[in-house]
Amino acid sequence: MAQKLKVNDKLSNSGQLLKVAPFRSYIRKTAPHRHNGYFEIIYLNQGSGSHTIDGVTYAIQPPILFMMQKEQMHHWDIHTEPKGYVLIVKKAFFQDSLDSVLQELLFKLSGYTILENIEHQQLHPLFTLLEEELNTSSPYQQSNLEGLLKALFGRCLSYASQQAEKKDISNSLFLAYKKLIEQEDYRLQNIKDYAALLHTSPQNLNHACRKAVQLSASDYLAEELIREAKRLLLYTDMSVAEIGFHLHFSDPSHFSKYFKRYTQVTPKNFRSEKG
Q1: Where is the HTH araC/xylS-type domain (predicted)?
Q2: Which of 120, 137, 162 is at the close of a domain?
Q3: Domain-located, residue 248
């Protein structure tokens, strides 16, 4: 039986929709894994080493923030004792909220993977207050949590706007396209189909993508699809044919040609070179 991607779920037994807890100080090396259906913000104000996300390795240089999407693979290689916080939030948390701004802020923040040059004195108290509020029984807990989350997300986005590499994540059409790709799980490979679902034209969709990430809509879709294919090639023992069918290609040959068109190597060679 083909090995599946390792999936961790830190909320499976508790039934929680939101969790804030100190980063576990004993963590050093972890196996590559992804998380089960939640968005995660990792804040470190102490520690050294590296954090690898989808094959890209980032140096841990505190204070630093990492934003983890549910579909991303990652692993740690930490050399000295880490300190900080982990915030986990499930989509269902927002279903109880009437504050549309909160979800919009999170949606914008999810366009980033790493935030540097942040202020420890501004962020640390917000994580501490969130942790305390979660451990307090109050009829106003939901409102208090939403207010603290808005403050945290807003502060993070302020740091994001100051980063040298800026992305136009305010483009609502691009964000909707990005979200739709994730929802459809790569079942659609025709830009016209995505444009129709978004009630726009392929030309408008292309314009939005070029403005946001300097890629056409089809190239952005290909980039996301190839990234998922690489995850499966690197972190599972699924055959090339199984991966092709999993990603909704009509046959293995089509998948191999598509992969090579964007990477200059076949899936088989990519696995052997990186394995």
Answers
A1: 171-273
A2: 162
A3: yes
Tell me the pLDDT tens digit for each residue of 121-139: 889 999 999 999 999 888 8
Confidence of residue 7 (pLDDT cuts 50, 70, 90): low
* Total count of domains within the chain: 2
Separation of CA 247 from chain center:
19
Among 170, 37, 73, 62, smallest CA distance to 124 is for 62
The token pair at 91 is: 């989509």
The C-alpha atoms of residue 105 and residue 170 are separated, in whole angstroms, by 10
Instruction: Give a yes or no: residue 94 inside a domain.
Output: yes
Asked if residue 199 and residue 155 are part of one domain, the reply reads no
Residues 37 and 155 in one domain: yes
**What are the phi and psi torsion angles at 107 (to 5°)?**
-60, -40
Same domain, 27 and 46: yes
Residue 5 has what DSSP assignment? P
What does the pLDDT look like over 14-34, one tens digit per residue? 567 899 999 999 999 999 888
Residue 1 lies in a domain: no
Between CA 118 and CA 103 the distance in angstroms is 22
**Cα Rg of the chain, angstroms:** 20
**By the 8 A CB rule, do 89 and 35 touch?**
no
- The answer to whether the predicted template modeling score (pTM) of the entire model surpasses 0.85 is no
* Alpha carbons 156 and 150: distance in angstroms, whole number: 10
What is the per-residue DSSP string for 127-194? HHHHHHHHTS--TTHHHHHHHHHHHHHHHHHHHHHHSSS---TT-HHHHHHHHHHHHHTT----HHHH
End-to-end CA distance of the chain: 19
